[in-house]
């Protein structure tokens, strides 16, 4: 009997590390929704009037993105220091350095006149526009600032916080 007891204790001691090392499966946390675009550049730029004493200089934020999904970008808003502003969406193209002499210094992108929907891989320029009476939707948290809010392909409101906006060189108008 004593021998059987020693054998049973030995077997338990040998098997204990195997059972103790087994991990229970834990449900994976739900990942945050992936953004539908990649932010290439976020910048602020001041446009100077061509006539001295003319209109006041205008400062505008610009967000250059690459659209990374097949769904269409339906609407886009910016919530920053100036409040809730709708964004103009333009298809953008980087200016070739060879053609740079045709544009004022400080201008890096040229926009197409018509936006007919984004295709995967398109470079887009989002520019917040002053004016308009668009109410902030109830789904948007009151504490969310410096954030791009958008709807894509029938989705709910999605957000993309912008960590840094660089200041670019002023653009003089002719």
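^ Assign residues to that structure.
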């Amino acid at each position: 009997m004593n021998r059987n007891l020693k054998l049973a204790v030995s077997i338990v001691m040998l098997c204990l590390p195997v059972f103790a090392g087994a991990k229970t499966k834990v449900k994976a946390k739900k990942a945050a929704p992936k953004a539908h675009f990649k932010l290439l550049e976020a910048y602020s730029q001041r446009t100077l009037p061509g006539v001295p004493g003319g209109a006041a200089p205008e400062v505008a934020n610009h967000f250059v993105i690459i659209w990374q999904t097949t769904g269409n970008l339906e609407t886009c808003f910016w919530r920053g220091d100036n409040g809730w502003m709708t964004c103009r969406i333009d298809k953008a193209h980087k200016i070739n350095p060879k053609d740079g002499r045709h544009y004022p210094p400080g201008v890096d992108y040229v926009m197409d006149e018509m936006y007919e929907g984004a295709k995967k891989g398109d470079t887009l320029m989002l520019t917040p526009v002053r004016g308009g009476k668009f109410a902030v939707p109830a789904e948007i948290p009151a504490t969310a600032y410096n954030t791009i809010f958008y709807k894509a392909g029938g989705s709910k409101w999605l957000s993309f916080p912008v960590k840094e906006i660089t200041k670019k060189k002023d653009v003089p108008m002719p």
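The chain has one domain: 37-172.
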